[in-house]
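Internal ticket #5521
Category: modeling
Description: The requester needs a full-assembly model to guide mutagenesis choices. All entity lines are attached below as received. Residue total reported by intake: 723.
Assigned to: D.W.
Attached entities:
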Amino acid sequence: MAQNRRPPTNNILNHSRPQGALAFLATIVILGLVGWVYLRQASEAAELQHRIQALRHQEQELQRQNDQLAYEVARLASVDHLNARARQLGYVAVSQARFVAVAGYPSPQETAPDETMTLAQRDPAGRATPSAVAGWWETFTGQFEAWAQSEQP
Amino acid sequence: MAANVDTLPRHRLIVLAGVMVGFGLILTWQLVRWQVIERDQFISIVENRPTGGEQTPARRGRILDRQGHPLALDTIEYQITATPGWIGDPGQVALRLAPLLELPAQELTAMLSSDTPWVLLRRRVSREVGETLREWDIYGLHVTHWPRRGYPEGSLAAHLLGFVAQDQQGFYGIEGYYNQLLAPSAFPTEAEEKSATPTSSVATEIFPFSLAKVTKQGSPDLILTVDRVIQHIAEQELDAAINQHRASGGSVIVMDPRSGAILAMASRPVYDPEYYSQTPSTELWADPAVTWDYEPGSVFKIVTVASALDAGTITLDQTFDDKGVIEVGGRQLYNWDRQAHGHVTITDAMTLSLNTVMAEVNTTVGPKIFYAYVQRFGFGRPTGIDLTGESEGQLKLPSDAMWNESELGTNAFGQGLAVTPLQMACGVAAIANRGTMMVPHVLQEIVSQDQVWPRHPTVARQVVSPETAKQVTEILIRAAQEGAPASVVPGYTIAGKSGTAQIPIPGGYDPEWTIASFVGFAPAHEPQFLILVKVDRPQDTPWGAAVAAPVFRNIAQRLFVMMDIQPPRE
């Protein structure tokens, strides 16, 4: 019986103690890491948010300054201003034009700016029509062939 | 003893662990509380901090003409506010600010000493003043950007553009009609749009796309059909005519009859939209071309003749016996010259502008057909133009209690009914466009960053057949050449009609004043523009052919050059 009696043991200090303490510490460390990662991300997000807000503010400020400059340019380029300046320089308004018909020279069918034409002019994609591209390519290949032939002995 | 020694670290560790977990829980709870539970409360605290007083309005979209020239855009001004509690020495600060803010130092001292969270010192100061105050960097003084709407072309197209008030609300013209597009802060979100409550926005009816999408990247720019050079020409010629004839005002409309696009719309008297509050009368803010109606006079004969020809009631070869007077509904009607012209065709009657023949035509056509055509021409209802304050004019129908049979006769030559200049222009534009009426519009497209939303021309209705339109055009060519020769540009074929309208006053017509007008299109057989000229109360001569027709000619002559329209080859 005396041999079976064991002295009182401390669970933390005996064989199972290091494992329990390790698990506890690991939990603390993991929690700490998760908290640190979260706080870091939150602070970075807040910092980025602040930077984005600052950039937006800067963009708005630049936009306002751009508008202000555009306004001043538009004032200087207004019809009244240009008209007065042109008159100062000795120009006069054209009130009558005489169109001279040249034999054999085709007259354009439609010369007035209509909405469709204006839209097409404003649309960069509209300018690059397939026929225009084809024409350009034909000109290019023709020039290349001419150059290649000129190089031949 | 050994047992006591062994158990001590365990207790300590448990206590330590408990404390750490407790702190951790407290920290975690605080984080959850601040970032999740009370998040909105903190955001509202930040947003409602008293430093700025009022939030700066968002940038308003620009308005540009068809060539991309800015007609309206925001400029920089500043709003000056203060937090009195933060001002160290109100008296000293007031002395510095007084000359710049143009306020008495005593008044400023009182404002800066008040116990309110913030106080508005000046709603608007110039850019120079604002930047000076920013450089001074006075603690407690807030210099906030406050946009001001600028109109770089001055009063050019003022009525058409409208203006923007201090609260950034657009009024009249384009600014008023497209206020929701130009100022997206007053705009419904996509979620709100999807809600059951339909929006009352007029723009929604015109554009088949989500307004929230258009304003997703901020306030969009509006490109107009208006050309600033054509607008300038129209205004210059109108001013010249008003000065020459000492008239009280007038309007000019230039439009493309093929699409309904308004190229220019000018009215006088005018105001500067940038300084709208200095206008002597608020009546000047409304656009007379779309808001005020008038009795059109002989110009309306175009509608009478087109209706009768299209209904098949009269023919071009038919002759009418003009006795100089006709009785309709118990009322005797006379020609403008009180003369009888004998047997005339309808073309002669238009050229000579004979009231009696028109009244006779109308009695033949009958009220049912005539008023059906008048309504088809768009009179008595708005044209649908994208401008605020459009009037529908005044048109009495046989079903109305106030209608009298004699009005069938007077309406035939443009008396007893009232139209807006735009209605009259659109009616004649239908003739120019082979009988098809287009919805007039001033917006060409909406541009937001890299996206473009075009507004396509819209057909209103087929008013008369193309054959009728062609016949009326031929009549109008002769009416312009012989009835109003001052409208003709040498080398070009013009179609048009002049009118001299009396001005109704209580109990009859004004014995002294008239409204002189002319409406025409050119080139007559391939129209590229239509011009309506209306001059109010000319003093030297009352006649449309003498006052308004030359204005048409002058504008048309300049447009031929500008638009490179060559005269037809022989």
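Resolution: model delivered.
Comment from assignee: Residues 186-190, 195-204 of chain B have pLDDT under 50 and may be disordered.
Ticket closed.
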